[in-house]
Amino acid sequence: MKIDIPQHKKRVHELRMPVRWGDMDAMGHVNNSVYFRYMETARIEWMCAIGCQPAPHGQGPVIANAFCNFHHQLEHPDQLLLTTYVSDPRRCTFESWCTIERESEPGVVCAAGGATVIWVDAALRKACPLPDWMRALVS
After folding, report:
1. Which CATH superfamily is domain 10-138 in?
2. Gene3D superfamilies in the record, alphabetically (predicted)?
């Protein structure tokens, strides 16, 4: 299935990774919960690349919700390409998106999902405005 990412989404990162043997379930394909780990890994890799390290006692991103649509099975030993996109910055949130393809089948999206990222003050345990530097990166 070919999926076009709408123009308002900004492509920000690519990550290549293998499907590990332990990612599969009894049915012989990647377990549905693992796709969320793949997308999380891609999102965290992007955030670290832009200098947004986890800050458990400061301000930073947390996930408010997440979803994934499954189009084609993945299995070991597939090599994956995860592409991360961002969009729709608001006062405290932005949207993140991820497509998952096999490197051997460029352009064929096996799964696509996303998450709403909310900026929080960990000490106060509440949402706070996106910093200007993050807003600029996701706009």
Report:
1. Hotdog Thioesterase (3.10.129.10)
2. Hotdog Thioesterase
